[in-house]
Amino acid sequence: MDKWDRILSEDNVLVDLKSRRKFDVLRELSAVFDDDDAIEDPKQFLADLIRREQESSTGIGKGVAVPHAHEDSISRQILAIGVSREGIDFESADEAPVHIVAMLGTPRKHQKQHMELLAELSRLLQQGWVRDEIVAAADAEQVLAIFKSGS
């Protein structure tokens, strides 16, 4: 089983985010987890994401943001991918609009896995061809295939 298969499914990929503001994007994308048993309280998960974003932007540059929550109320690692062709102002350090949002959640007790996943996402999304193909993807199936081919 591919490492992405464990935490990413087509149900958790939105290839056409409707929201244009970062906190609306957090609401829209986190909703994919509303029925996921990994999250004890979806409203608390969203509040944790918003609180983290208010502390400092998770826009890491090159059109990518990685909002994340690392809380005890999350039972296992989860990941969602959102794509905005128009771009979102995430207040990134490079001031570039964000086109790819990789939202993750991990249990607090899994600090090592949390850091490993952040590093892996960063490594993958630093590759220009990966970002270009994700933004151009027609559907969630294509996004999953890009993750598998890029890792």
Helix proportion: 40-55%
Run of helices and strands: HEHHEEEEEHHH
Q: Could you name the CATH topology?
A: Mannitol-specific EII, Chain A
**Briefly, what CATH class?**
Alpha Beta
What is the count of helical runs? 6
Shape: globular
CATH architecture assignment: 3-Layer(aba) Sandwich
Topology:
Layout: H1 3-7, E1 13-14, H2 22-30, H3 42-55, E2 59-61, E3 64-65, E4 68-70, E5 78-88, E6 98-106, H4 111-125, H5 128-136, H6 140-150
Parallel strand pairs: 1-5, 3-6, 4-6
Antiparallel strand pairs: 2-3, 5-6
Please name the defining characteristics of this protein.
single chain; 151 residues; alpha/beta; Mannitol-specific EII, Chain A; six-stranded mixed β-sheet; 6 helices; 20% strand
How would you sum up this structure, described in words?
The chain has 151 residues and is α/β, with parallel strands linked by helices. The protein has one domain (3-150): Mannitol-specific EII, Chain A, CATH 3.40.930.10. It contains 6 helices and 6 strands. It has helices at residues 3-7, 22-30, 42-55, 111-125, 128-136, 140-150; strands at residues 13-14, 59-61, 64-65, 68-70, 78-88, 98-106. Strands 1, 2, 3, 4, 5 and 6 form a 6-stranded mixed sheet that branches. A hairpin with a 2-residue loop joins strand 2 and strand 3 (64-65). The protein is globular. The mean pLDDT is 92.
Structure described in brief:
This protein is of the alpha/beta class and 151 residues long. The protein has helices at residues 3-7, 22-30, 42-55, 111-125, 128-136, 140-150, and strands at residues 13-14, 59-61, 64-65, 68-70, 78-88, 98-106.
